[in-house]
């Protein structure tokens, strides 16, 4: 039990809950930690006094992604706060405060320190040490061990360590660093913090401050992050991919905490980046776009959805907004009209592998590149959609012709857009004809049942399908629909109460 108390930080969690007088608390566990849910809740209840003043509810099988705070599930039990256990993307919450317990994954500090100093001797760059949040507990020991070894050994360059931004989070629709982490030691009166909303990098005086995936660090304004060697401690997971793709111009190495060895090969991540560029080019040919809602809790998700709608509309395309929980190929196959999907999710789950899907799935950043005429990819890559949120409406289009590669026409084409002062009453008709032509090219099989003629609206697409649920051929009158069982799985309403 002492191990549970230490690993899950029971005393600190209880102090947080008592200090704010929360009486209904949701404990969110990922699947791999669910086995510890019962002992953790018992230990926390004892630490809180064992009375009935605070009710604890265990949550599992989250509505979307386990790395995000499940505000949808917590709202079902009217929770006042969520205690999130395990790996977290640290995405800002919309409605509920959250307390994070990252856990304490084992780390061989001595072996990691020796590997770090070897990199320092071999590299001609300063080193920035980043880590998975579950290894943050060992950073102080690593700093101390590295400082001791540097006294007896020559270190060619500076070694800098990132810090954990916060472990407490307050809800916000405009997630600045200070709003989300009120306990931060940084000054809360810096006017420059207002600029943090739309970037993971913020200039404060003579320093450039970075915040990414729950980690924060600062470098001199005279330096560039590209000049650093990034030394990642942790697993090859979504958090590492977020760092590697965001800072894809940096040299990156990863210390494998399981094998206790250094991995320098991150070329596969660059292959991912090249594939994302291919999807951007392919998305330019799409006429009907589905906006997949991959979160209902991350602050700003409604803003980015609205921004995507405006962007798609300005590009002369049609969009549908779809809420379906965790997307998969079977779910998306129900919407064959959509030629590409834009996935609005947290930064660490935004890269959805769509190789097995009927249509590609891109991120909001990739949608901006695909649907904003004249926008070129400079190598910069953003996964966090909050960095894209803007109050300005997207430009309708570039006035000049733009040459691009068309996957439908099989060659380079030029898009010619009208001047603002020109009137084109036939624009809507031309767009409808273009959409119908694109659909006919995509589906040239006369025996196919997905399309019947030129569909112009969502209801036409529905009518063209061979199966439509409880409508059409299998239509059932409302008065003949059977009501299913109600209640909990343990005791349904039509069963006798179990003794």
CATH topology of the largest domain: Rossmann fold
What is the multimeric organization of the chains shown?
A: single chain
Overall body shape: globular
- Corresponding CATH architecture of the largest domain: 3-Layer(aba) Sandwich
How many domains make up the 3D coordinates?
4
Q: Which percent bin holds the helix content? A: 25-40%
User: How much of the sequence is in beta strands?
Assistant: 15-25%
What's the arrangement of strands in the largest beta sheet? 2-1-3-4-8
Q: What structural class do helix, strand and pairing data support?
A: alpha/beta
Radius of gyration: 26 Å
CATH homology-level superfamily of the largest domain: Diphthamide synthesis DPH1/DPH2 domain 2
Under the CATH scheme, which class of the largest domain? Alpha Beta
**Low-confidence parts:** 173-180, 182-199, 396-405, 416-428, 441-455
According to DSSP, the number of beta strands is 20
Pathway: Protein modification; peptidyl-diphthamide biosynthesis
GO biological process, one term: protein histidyl modification to diphthamide
Keywords: Iron, Iron-sulfur, Metal-binding
Family: Belongs to the DPH1/DPH2 family. DPH2 subfamily.
